[in-house]
Amino acid sequence: MSVALDQSLVKSGPLADIYEKIIAGKRIDRDDAIRLYREKDINAVGALAEFVRQRKAGPGKEKYVYYIHNMHLNPTNFCVETCRFCSYANPEEQAKAYTWTVDQVLAEARKGVASGIREIHMVGGLNPACDINYYEDVFRTIKKEFPDVHLKTMTAVEIEYMANLEGISYEEVLERLIAAGLNSMPGGGAEIFDETVREKMAVKKTPARVWLEIHGIAHKLGLNTNATMLTGIGESIENKVDHMLLLREQQDKSKGFLTFIPLKCYYEGTTITADEIKEPSEEDLLRDIAVSRLLLDNFPHIKAYWIQLGVQLALKAFAFGADDLDGTIQMEKITHAAGAKTPLQLAKEKMEALIAEAGYVPVERDTVYNIIRVAEPVSSACAS
Ligand code: V47
Ligand code: SF4
After folding, report:
1. What is the Å distance from ligand 1's center to 145 Cα?
2. What b/e readout covers 308-337, taking b as 16+ CB neighbours within 10 angstroms?
3. Contact 350, 329 (CB under 8 A)
């Protein structure tokens, strides 16, 4: 299949110069990205992003959409931090907070592995009871029983917290955790890098510089990592573009990012008030996907996180540059604590059916995008 772009949408319109850059494989810049956010014709922006998605996928893979059979596992919701958008580790409810023992974490992992998962996505609150010894123990215990399960775990925020707790360097924390079984890192904790937004949302922890430094060290040590951006917390278009540009710059240096994941804030149980933010519309969310696909030219993948976008919008996002629907998940806690009404999990078969119904080819992957299985096209033959 050849890569097609509906040229009538972009060639002679206000995006013509950006179109020329993209066709020529040139990098777009800050002003281009801001214009793409402000462009009235969202379908033109989507067409450009879809074109880039297909070109990046390579011949024969233009319609591939990836997913993974995984589980989320959250060992503790006690957190010393008080991010205002977080209902998962709600300071009002800390008396009821839980901290699992190593055996409890293993028992949860066993349930996931029994259902066939290949990746554990594990993140938790910043809890002094869960120090580096605890996580080394957790990782070793899981790996002893399930050596083939991939541990995608520890945000940069958790790495920074652990380094401060132990009085050791980020590199030393990462080296110890890698020796215990850490395989890659998820993209959480990036939020919006802009300092004013971070201050207001009480994300005083882990400034952009440190978040990026930790991912750079992880890449140097051979880990792949992801990167997120949380929208709906009072950010501007410029803040989002600058956030992505910092990621692009880091990726130029260290090259280990695999996937960018635009997130959308849910507000139930948080202290965020309506006058402080503009809740992103569906169109805003599709634009985040499309602009990120166009600006982050050095990121291999863009994820449509169905838990937060909702399943239907996530499926639409494939036509706006996304090529990954994330995973089966099993039990999502962070977004559901803040009022998400999406399911807590999706079965593999359901994910495949949804991707196929949207007109794409479902591809089961592992964490680092090795292809496990390309699903057979579902026959649309009808007996009637
Ligand atoms: O860092 C917290 C966000 C993130 C809320 O790497 C909230 O593959 C919405 O990083 N509403 C954790 N979001 C999730 C995350 C993630 C998810 C899926 C895949 C990957 C990956 C990473 O969730 C946190 C924070 O930015 N968050 N509270 C909330 N109320
Ligand atoms: Fe703690 Fe993470 Fe919630 Fe912030 S988002 S309060 S660091 S669990």
Report:
1. 28
2. bbbbebbbbbbbbbbbbbbbbbbebbbbbb
3. no
Is 324 contained in some domain? Answer: yes
In whole angstroms, what is the distance from residue 300 CA to residue 323 CA? 9
Instruction: Please check whether residues 186 and 308 belong to one and the same domain.
Output: yes
Q: How far is the CA of 367 from the centre of ligand 1 (A)?
A: 17
CA-closest residue to ligand 1 atom 21: 186
* CA-closest residue to ligand 2 atom 7: 81
Asked whether 364 lines ligand 2 (CB < 6 A), one says no
Residues 122 and 17 in one domain: no
Which atom number of ligand 2 is nearest to the Cα of residue 79? 1
- Distance, CA of 189 to CA of 203 (rounded, Å): 9
Q: Are residues 289 and 330 in the same domain?
A: yes
> Which domain covers residue 213, as residue numbers?
65-378
From the CA of 107, how far away is ligand 2's center (Å)? 24
Q: Whose CA is nearest to atom 9 of ligand 1?
A: 265
In a shared domain, residues 41 and 111: no
Q: Are residues 75 and 183 in the same domain?
A: yes
User: Which helix H or strand E contains 245, and what residues bound it?
Assistant: helix 237-254
Which amino acid is located at 369 in the chain?
Answer: Y
Number of independent structural domains in the chain: 2
Chosen domain end from 57, 74, 96: 57
Q: Which ligand is nearest to the CA of 75?
A: 2
**pLDDT by residue (tens digit) across 109-165?**
999 999 999 999 999 999 999 999 999 999 999 999 999 999 999 999 999 999 999
Whether 9 contacts 47, CB under 8 Å: yes
For ligand 1, is residue 232 a contact (CB within 6 Å)?
no
| 121 and 194 both lie in a single domain | yes
Quick one: pLDDT at residue 9? 64
Mean pLDDT of 90-94: 76
- What pTM does this model have? 0.95
Nearest atom, ligand 2, residue 86 CA: 3
Considering every ligand atom shown, identify the ligand nearest to the alpha carbon of residue 301 and give its number.
1
Residue 384 has pLDDT above 80, yes or no: no
- Residue 246 in any domain: the answer is yes
